[in-house]
Amino acid sequence: MNANKQENLTGQQALRQQVGERFSADWESNDHRARRLVSEFIGTSGLTFVLSGGAAILAGYGGGSLAPYQFAFILSTVAALWLVAAVFFLGDISSHFNPAMTLGFCLRGDISVPMAVAYIAVQMVAAAAGSCMAAYLFGTGGNLAATSPQPGMLLQAVIFEAILTFGMVLLVLGMTNGPKLDGSSVPLAVGAYVMAWGTMGGPFDGAAFNPARAFGPDFARGDLSTYWVYPCGSLIGVLVAVAVARFLRGPAKASEANAAMGNPLQR
Length: 267
Hints:
CATH superfamily: Glycerol uptake facilitator protein
Strand content: under 5%
Protein name: Aquaporin
Transmembrane segments: 41-63, 69-90, 111-138, 153-174, 186-208, 228-248
Order of helices and strands: HHHHHHHHHHHH
Radius of gyration: 19 Å
Main location: membrane
Subcellular location: Cell membrane
CATH topology: Glycerol uptake facilitator protein
Number of helices: 12
Membrane topology: Multi-pass membrane protein
């Protein structure tokens, strides 16, 4: 009966069972938790910095006006390239860079609720810091790449953000699950997703699929009037994505939790 119980363990509990005493000493150590949060700060602040800075530089120093789809394509490319680079060099520590992704891992059982709350707090602060730094250096041109729904289309924007977030979370959960666990391809897949959907949806509502990415520019500009659209849409997308991922691939095991929590330093 105990053997069956162990086989039914999922996510973080499965990893704890697999590694034994090392789990508390390594994955739950203050050093490793701090490393994870610093990694999240670097990745998330870098994302909003390159987006807000890119928008301000294009508007102030780009040498000409751009059509909305051109603006969206350039910024989506910049964001995608940053995410590819950041996930490659920080992925073994922590590379959620998105409260929606963190919530998805938490709901799947890969990380604890207290740690997920800490992640989301750091991601939001980091996003604000990145956009504020860009505003200080380059001004607020291009609205700092702020996400903004079309007038009179708030509900449509919520639904669109839910769809975007659903796809992103399902993609990452699918690539960090069981036999398809493939960390080496995740950065490329995430970059491709961001570039494709950012270019397509940018002119419509900014195509955030990341509540932190939407928060940073709004905070730096001092305008949070339509910000609620993005966390609301993302929440819906995450809930559906986690349910669909479980249906498609089953519950997460030890390896999935390890992918979500990163690798501790070797002792």
